[in-house]
Amino acid sequence: MSERSEDPRPPTGQGRFAGRVAIVTGASRGIGLGIAQRLVAEGARVCLTARNPEPLEEAVAALGGPGRAIFVAGKADDVTHQEAAVAATVAAFGGLDVLVNNTGINPVAGPVAGTDPAAVAKVFAVNYTAPAGWVERARLGGLGARPGAAIVNVASVAGLRPSPPIGVYGASKAALIHLTFELAIELAPRIRVNAVAPAVVKTKFATLLYEGREAEVAARYPLGRLGVPADIAGPVAFLASDDAAWVTGQTLTVDGGLLNAGSFA
Questions:
Q1: How far is CA 152 from the centre of its chain?
Q2: Is 169 among the catalytic positions?
Q3: Which pLDDT score is estimated for 19?
Q4: Which tens digits make up the pLDDT trace of 139-154?
Q5: CA torsion 57→9→249→24, rounded to 10°?
Q6: Domains of the chain: which residue ranges?
Q7: What is the spatial distance between Cα 75 and Cα 4, in angstroms, rounded to a whole number?
Q8: Which CATH superfamily is domain 21-260 in?
Q9: How far is CA 245 from each of CA 115, 143, 147, rounded to the nearest angstrom?
Q10: Nearest of 26, 46, 49 to residue 36 by alpha carbon
Q11: What is the model's pTM?
Q12: In angstroms, rounded to a whole number, what is the distance separating the alpha carbons of residues 212 and 74?
């Protein structure tokens, strides 16, 4: 089974984001950090957000420091945090061109029936309501004022098919996919809105779905392996770039062929 390199540097297309500014939520590690690495590698300046400041500090240093990246720590579903992050980004870099809604949580596993309603509400607050809030804060902060503005929502294949034992998470991601459709109409023509729907990516967040049985899980994928953050960062960069200038309201499945093979998320 082959593994993909974690090196985020693209072989071609350098500089697609030169002069552009992005916010990536949930970017202290995993998919979010991989996306931030790819955008910076292609010329963007980026604000990273997540709950804890220490890993964000480390991520910013790895990306080249304050000239290329800053961070604002806080809870993704806190409107005050959203406002602060947008304001800090605009103050540091002079504008905002790209928003990547990557933050997600999945604190429950098991049947949807019988799940604590408070837990369901929290999943939807972070996975659906928070992205909607980030979009509004970004729009009010100037996203769309310059050409090429784009939003990319990180959804999941769990939002496209039944996905036991993470059905509540899947329902929240289905809502995020529908939000993508709606916003693509509402924010056109100044802001494009698309989503990616990954299958299992090897991050700390997804360990429940593969830890201790990676070979067994990977065998269900036609491409023979699980994803890594770089597998998601490339498609997100495409959708955020002018290479996708005539693409909006789409959800790009990035799953190693899993759904095409008829498997659950």
A1: 7
A2: yes
A3: 97
A4: 999 999 999 999 999 9
A5: 0
A6: 21-260
A7: 32
A8: NAD(P)-binding Rossmann-like Domain (3.40.50.720)
A9: 41, 16, 10
A10: 46
A11: 0.92
A12: 32
Three-state secondary structure call for residue 202: coil
**Amino acid identity at 27:** A
**8 has a pLDDT exceeding 50:** no
CB 195 within 8 A of CB 151: no
Q: Residue 206 pLDDT > 80, yes or no?
A: no
Helices (H), the chain: 30-41, 53-62, 79-93, 117-124, 130-140, 167-186, 214-218, 229-240
Residue 3 has pLDDT above 80, yes or no: no
Q: Are 151 and 135 in contact (CB under 8 A)?
A: yes
8 A C-beta contact, residue 164 and residue 262: no
In this structure, the strands spanning 21-24 and 98-101 are: parallel
Q: Which of 128, 169, 210, 221 is catalytic?
A: 169
Is pLDDT larger for residue 49 or for residue 204? 49
CA angle 186, 189, 93 (to 5 degrees): 100
Lowest mean pLDDT among 7-11, 80-84, 193-197, 239-243: 7-11
Question: What's the confidence (pLDDT) of residue 71?
Answer: 98
* CB crowding 202-226: b at 16 or more within 10 Å, else e: bbebbeebbeeebeebbebbebebb
Q: What is the DSSP letter of 140?
A: H
Residue 46: beta bridge partners? 22, 69
pLDDT band at 21 (very low <50, low <70, confident <90, very high): very high
